[in-house]
Specification:
231 residues, alpha/beta, Zincin-like, 2 domains, 4-stranded mixed sheet, M48 family metallopeptidase
């Protein structure tokens, strides 16, 4: 009987003194000091195989609860709320939120499958909401933290919620508006903290904790929502 080999990424660092395995949605990373050889890593990962598989299974089970299904009367997330999705045909494409309902109107002139068209319109609605909401929250946290980004881009990422480059420009994933508002705020504070500490050092996390004390809980909550990154 052969055992399937685990896929993992090796990340070496001259600053790191200990080895660690990080199991994340869709990937396993082995973080090691720069001098550790591949043979040792292979043996260590083999020893940890059962633990890694258990953690992957747990993440997969948690993630199933956050998969989005586009169907009549299905529920979709928006900033910690649940919106009920419905659609009908009309003169032109349109999306309207009324309370806890999201109504989509489909133009009769479209030829693509109905669900595909609804999905595209819902995505466009999310993107529009994200552009205004994330900009507003970034301004809010800039005032509180005193850390000011050089600019903001709201875009699509497939493996992350946000980033900050070495010029101080912050990019945020439009899919963040499908997460609760406190998780959105955590991501924004996280990226702003990189303006002062362009790393994930103890000082970086201490700065994040100054403004978001429960950051670790919020970070774990976002990990469970990884299926949203593929909507």
């Amino acid at each position: 009987m052969t055992t399937e080999r685990l896929a993992y990424e090796i990340v070496r660092s001259k600053k790191r003194r200990t080895a660690a395995i990080k199991v994340e949605p869709g990937q396993v990373r082995v973080l090691v000091p720069h001098w550790v050889d591949d043979h040792w890593i292979e043996g260590w990962v083999a020893e940890k195989r059962h633990w890694i598989l258990q953690k992957q299974q747990r993440l997969a089970e948690q993630g199933q609860a956050f998969e989005i299904r586009i169907a009549q009367q299905s529920e979709i997330p928006f900033l910690g709320q649940t919106l009920r999705l419905t659609w009908q045909y009309g003169a032109r494409n349109q999306v309207d939120r009324v309370g806890d309902q999201l109504h989509v109107t489909l133009s009769r002139r479209g030829s693509r499958p109905e669900v595909e068209r609804v999905t595209d319109l819902v995505k466009s609605w999310y993107q529009g909401q994200a552009q205004s909401y994330l900009s507003e929250r970034l301004q809010h946290w800039q005032q509180i933290t005193g850390l000011v980004a050089s600019g903001l881009t709201v875009k699509s990422f497939r493996r992350r919620w946000g980033s900050c480059d070495n010029r101080g420009h912050i990019s945020l994933n439009w899919r963040l508006v499908m997460a609760p508002a406190d998780q959105v705020d955590y991501v924004i504070v996280h990226e702003l903290a990189h303006l002062k500490h362009f790393n994930h050092s103890k000082r970086f996390w201490a700065l994040v904790a100054t403004f978001v004390a429960q950051y670790n809980t919020l970070r774990l909550g976002l990990q469970c929502r990884y299926p949203l990154l593929y909507f």
